[in-house]
Amino acid sequence: MNKNDIWQIVQIFDTDGTYIPESAIVTGETKEFYYTTEEISCKDREKVVRRNEWKSSMMNKLLKLSDIKGISYKCYFMSSNLDHALYNKQNLTDEEKELYSIKFYEMFEGHEKLFIKYLESDVVNGCPDSFPASWKYIKEELHSLERHSNLHIYFKENPYL
Questions:
Q1: How far is 18 from 1, CA to CA, in rounded Å?
Q2: How far is 78 from 158, CA to CA, in rounded Å?
Q3: Of 148, 149, 146, 134, nearest to 17 (Cα)?
Q4: 8-14 and 71-79 strand pairing
Q5: 82 vs 63, 69, 146, CA distance in Å?
Q6: DSSP label of 88
């Protein structure tokens, strides 16, 4: 493969509640991060704070890119993560993630246009249809913990579909 074979690099982020205010990060019972649509809890609250600072700075840096080594680059999001956005489930185990992904694949295999309609009807949830506005929206309030995606914009803007 050579560089001219690549039309665009598309990256999809899990927002993981990265942009929430620190007041929505609480000390919880478990060592692992536990997500709700209103807060993130963890035994080590500062671990979440540090992760959010690092991850938001990385995502913000990547958002400024329009290309990588001359290849068009765009980044989209699933909030709070892919499981939450696509299946409306948070805090799944690895086994549950595998089961849901298989069911999801089977539901949309050969029905790609139906997937786009699903994104627009079930996952967008009030996220603006403009790329810049969608990123502004997800950075506000608790939106990066709520169920949203801006991936539908990719399909609206992609000239090859």
A1: 35
A2: 18
A3: 146
A4: parallel
A5: 19, 28, 12
A6: S
pLDDT digits (tens, 9 = 90+) for 133-149: 999 999 999 999 999 99
Rounded Cα–Cα distance for residues 7 and 14 (Å):
23
What does the alpha-carbon distance between residue 133 and residue 8 come to, in Å, rounded to a whole number? 21
Residue among 145, 144, 135 nearest 153 (CA): 135
Residue 50 pairs in a beta bridge with none
Cβ neighbours of residue 97 closer than 8 Å, sequence gap 6 or more: 83
Number of helices (H), then strands (E), belonging to the chain: the values are 6, 7
Terminal Cα distance for the chain, rounded: 22
> φ, ψ for residue 53 (rounded to 5)?
-65, -45
- Tell me the one-letter amino acid at 31: K
pLDDT the model gives residue 3: 81
d(CA 22, CA 40): 10
Reference 126, options 108, 150, 142, 105; nearest CA is 150
pTM above 0.85, yes or no: yes
**In whole angstroms, what is the distance from residue 158 CA to residue 2 CA?**
22
d(CA 39, CA 132): 25
